[in-house]
Structure formats: C-alpha cells, structure tokens
Amino acid sequence: MVPLGWYVSLSIVLFVIGAAGVLLRRNILVVLMSLELLLNSVNINFIAFGHYHADFRGQIFAIFVIAITAAEVAVALGILVALVRNRATLKIDDVTLMKG
C-alpha cells in the first residue's frame, strides 16, 4: 500500500506545475491545461484522503469536480473558438477584451 504522504507530495508537485503554467504562460490553451492540472491535483487529494479515512465522500467530491471541469472546458473552448475566429491569436495579451 502506498503511503498517504506520497499522494500528497504528488499532488503538491502537480499543483505547483499547474500554478506556474497559469501564472507564467501566455498561450490560452496552455493556461487551460494548467487549470486542469490544478483541479486534478485536488482530485488526487480528495481520493487519497477519502481512502485513508475509509470514506467515500472524497471520491464523490472528485466526481463532482470532474463534472464541473468538463463543463468548464466545454464553455472555455467555445469562447476560445469564438476569440480565435475574431482575433486570429491565442496569446492572452492580444485577446484582452477591455482596452483601457
């Protein structure tokens, strides 16, 4: 059996990589993938702690997070397709809607 600390450390590494991708990258697709990495690291924690405490609530939360993530990706990709059609770029700085 894998110790709980390994799951937590894997989750921390994935969360840091995802946060760095969100904060440092300028491509919208990479930012969306980094957000997915952040949410998947949270799912690993939910499932690991749920298994550690012999409770199914962690798995139920993880399923809800996966469902919400699927909806978020569908909406974000729809918006992304519309922006690419209008602006022909994937750079975040060029896609900014508010000019000020």
UniProtKB/TrEMBL annotation:
Biological process, per Gene Ontology: ATP synthesis coupled electron transport
Subcellular location: Cell membrane; Membrane
GO cellular component: NADH dehydrogenase complex; plasma membrane
Alphabetical keyword list: Cell membrane, Membrane, NAD, Quinone, Translocase, Transmembrane, Transmembrane helix, Transport, Ubiquinone
Group of enzyme by EC: translocase
NCBIfam families given in the database record: PRK05715.1-2 (NF004320), PRK05715.1-3 (NF004321), PRK05715.1-5 (NF004323)
Broad class of where this protein is predominantly found: membrane
Superkingdom of origin organism: Bacteria
Organism whose genome encodes this protein: Rhizobium mesoamericanum STM3625
PANTHER family (UniProt xref): NADH-UBIQUINONE OXIDOREDUCTASE CHAIN 4L (PTHR11434:SF16), NADH-UBIQUINONE OXIDOREDUCTASE SUBUNIT ND4L (PTHR11434)
EC numbers: 7.1.1.-
Claim: Chloroplast is one of the keywords in the record: no
Family: Belongs to the complex I subunit 4L family.
Protein name: NADH-quinone oxidoreductase subunit K
